[in-house]
Amino acid sequence: MENRVVIGGQWGDEGKGKIVDTLSRDVDWVLRFQGGANAGHTIHIGSEKHVLHLVPSGVLHEGVKCLLGGGMVIDPWSLRDEILALEQRGIKVRDRIFIAANAALLMPYHKRLDELKEEGRKRKSIGTTGRGIGPAYLDKIQRTGMRLGDLQLPAENLERKAIEMILSANELLSTHYDAEPLPSRVLAEELVVLAQFIAPMVVNPYEVLKGVRQGTETVLLEGAQGTLLDIDHGTYPYVTSSNSTIGGALTGSSLAPRSLGEINGIFKAYLTRVGNGPFPTELLGDQGEALREAGGEYGATTGRARRCGWFDMVAARYSADINGLTGAIITKMDVLDSMPSIQVATSYEVDGEPLPCYPVDGNILPRCRPVYREFKGWEKPTTECRRLTDLPANARKYLEFLEAELGTLIVGVSVGKDREQMIWTNTGVTT
Ligand code: IMP
Known about the structure:
Elements: E1 4-8, H1 16-23, E2 29-32, E3 41-45, E4 48-52, E5 65-68, E6 73-74, H2 76-88, E7 97-100, E8 104-105, H3 108-121, H4 133-141, H5 155-177, H6 184-198, E9 202-203, H7 205-208, H8 210-214, E10 219-222, H9 246-251, E11 262-268, E12 271-273, H10 286-295, E13 307-309, E14 311-312, H11 313-323, E15 327-331, E16 341-350, E17 353-354, E18 369-376, H12 393-406, E19 410-414, E20 422-424
Parallel strand pairs: 1-10, 1-11, 2-5, 2-10, 5-7, 6-8, 7-9, 11-15, 14-16, 15-19
Antiparallel strand pairs: 3-4, 12-13, 16-17, 16-18, 19-20
Helix pairs in contact: 3-4, 3-5, 5-6
This protein binds inosinic acid (IMP).
């Protein structure tokens, strides 16, 4: 098994959880490199459904070590709850979860500030998950935040530091937002108790990843969100606050480029978005509703209905290019099983003029009109297909088109929620 990075190719929710779970069977490490509890990675095993927010999706394989990387923002309250929930299900995790000391600590005031900032944006709200992500990264970037390593401080030092931080956040809450202060002492004491639970898992990522650097251990780097939500390369300002593209896999892990191995982009066979912002191929009427129902398109973190639309090849090509994908995996293919016809946006027009490529200027995307190519649906179930040759001819034609246009081999196709509902191919889908 080679090292591998799994990146969301679209606006998140591509089904990365299932893919990471499947691919992590034979690796030593699974490493989340960015984001926080805004992610909701869902894994179905038989009748059981696991939703992970902070813990890497490799955790369901006994013996796989999981590292929450330095590029993450970690809410210790959520992390404790997630670990306890896994243990309640009989999954032993405590000795194989590791947390990078340089990861940013997300505090309750970050969540409160996230909510208040969103309220203040009114009609221009981003539609964040409310998990405090933006404010926590802001503290990191302005060099004022705490880090996970701080949980290893002596209790009184940690408590003092936490109180200082909370009081300074309270100042902001009252002066800028006219909001109630948070109980500094209570929260600081809770953090000290949490530290006893979490501190034994905090490590130096440079040290624990020595085997990966030397090539004696393998790693799967798990991206959260997706390329179009990247703070630099996504549909700014309607993005998350981290680098969900390939650069984040380096800065968020402490690994060097040559350790990355394969780079797999995950793309849903259609497209969804949660939260606000431009979405050129969005379907607003019955067709959008049909996709939402067929795909169960409701957020794993917030339960919000996802906006649905057709596959956007202009955006997908951009994603394949900027991440340097070595392979693509198409998910939720089965959701299209009953569609009589399927569309793919192949180019954009602005004011009737063709656009040469995906625009990175956030002022242009809302003005883009997609130009579609239509495909005949296959109108047959694909959920039992396990080889490419099992797929209906029209489904293969659709995949062959995606492969050719993406410019990268499609190495996997997911045809259902379960671990087994996968078609793998080393040679792509084009015969
Ligand atoms: P935040 O990351 O909570 O600040 O939210 C910023 C934007 O990213 C919002 O539009 C969210 O809906 C979106 N977002 C954040 N995390 C995810 C995710 O895991 N899947 C899909 N969208 C996400």
